[in-house]
User: Fold these one by one.
Assistant:
Number 1:
Amino acid sequence: MKILGGAYKGRNFYMPAGIRPTQNVLRAAIFDLLGHSLSGLSFLELFAGSGAVSLEAVSRGASTVVMVEFNDLNAKTIQENCELLGIELGRDFSLVHAEAMTTIKRLSEEKRRFDIVFFDPPYGQKLAKKTLKLIGSRDILHAQSLVLVQCETTEKLEVPENFEVLTQRRYGSSYLTLLQQVTVKKAE
């Protein structure tokens, strides 16, 4: 696999065996939706797999990137990919080797906020709906933060009231749904 844009454009990275990677067409679509420059933005990727989307975010100028991956082999591959590209893991670019739901709760407790959250959970487990609901109930977003969900077309994504769907597009057996956090008006 290769980085598609930004400072690391054309550079190769590793893909662990046994995962469903975010293919080039989908990665290109992700950054078409988010914008090609993420300069100065904070980015959170849950269920990071190889870290492909996060590596792309770093390449496109994101100032803070947090990659969350539970699987040992995948987390090791993310570390190797960062070393391969010369991305130093530390304060600005970090790998959290933990379960996604637990990490969302911990980030909320630490009062961490992100401009963009991307997640592509394993298919067949109905995790997209559960993850979006947890993100909506935890305070990890800014007022106008974007959430981009990749899920299988068979999963019905229920949108919490504090999100607005900006667009939803189908790519083969996947949907990409871009949402924005909105302020919910209280009934008077």
Number 2:
Amino acid sequence: MDYTQLKTAIQRFGEMLEAYRNNAGRPPLEQEAVQDSLIKRFEYTLEVAWKICKKHLEEEGFAEAATGSPKSIIRLAAQRNLISNPETWFNYLQFRQDTSHDYSVDKAEVVLDVAEGFYEDVVNLYRGMTGESF
């Protein structure tokens, strides 16, 4: 199975997370652009992560993954020890839905607050599926 799309998404998310960590001192417009980009990369990386996980589980022989929703895929991934805390991933899904439909500062702040944890979780998912270090 090809995990390149997920690896690239994680790398790009990580790059923007690093830019966000170093956001102080930039002009306000640049700060906002970095934040917006981090949120979009969060949305994209989460979407790629659950879909690649779905394919991974299908290839592992779990027929129920073929028709699974994001939440059911996360539950199955947790059962297979690919995800340590499905509730955290359910929250990520909710945050993604919230930010894609509501561009308020409050919704954006929530994603910015969980970005570090999400990065660690998605890297661990990648490692669990591929056996590769990141």
Number 3:
Amino acid sequence: MTKLHPPRVRTVRVGDTRVLTHRRRESRLSDPYHLVLTLSWPRFFGALVLMFILVNLIFGTAYWLLPGSVAHASERDFFDYFFFSIETLATVGYGVMSPGSLAGHLVASVEILTGMVGIAITTGLVFVRFSKPTARILFSNRAIIRDFDNARVLMLRMANERHNRIVEATATLSLVRLEVNPQGESFVRIHDLNLVRERTPVFALTWTLIHTIDERSPLYGLNATQLAASRSRILVSVTGHDETMAASVYAGNSYEAEDLVFDSRFVDILSMTPDGDRVVDLTRFHDIEIEPVQSGAVSP
């Protein structure tokens, strides 16, 4: 009788949200390249150290089990063979110990080839991890819903922390919420939220995204309680071409229903010096000012 294994649970992060996925039982080693690229730097270097020790333990044991394979090595001291393996793998060769038999030469040849291939693979992986383009875009920790220019709007702001130029930057805003269809089935639906300005030729300092909440908006007529009940979440993503790295970059963020603040406004962080220089005060980037509440609903 075939034994059934329970599904494997894996935690996946979508923005700041944790999602538990049930998947068929398979090792993450089935996709080693993706695994290595997604490891944190401490875990990556920790894995390299463990692999280095393991390989040298294997070859050191092979030398140790072949009497006379290493000249000038003590037959009772395993560490002589272990450190000879390290010297061989790194092609150092201090000259005190050397292969002492045909078997020793064969094992050393295999280890040298292993070392050459390992160094090439490690160099490639480190280069890929370092060269992977990333964007340092700061998102406001809350989004606001307010009256602006005679309309009800949803606003959030971003800043380029590198202060370089991201050219042809494009932003998208989406609403993700739980809905029930006429048949009584619950499902998650994604609605696109149109932006007043979704593209900018140069994103160097700050950028405020504005969505007008009118009759065509999926947010129209909803208040904070309704947004929370439908598990609404706002997703924002930004793509563009980083002029410094000469590569496309991406950044994203998400806002839960409790991150939406009604009838408030962002504190102004732009000012001018007497000399005419523009100042961007990112220390107050997340600050908001609560305005007198005029309406508890999203609609005007």
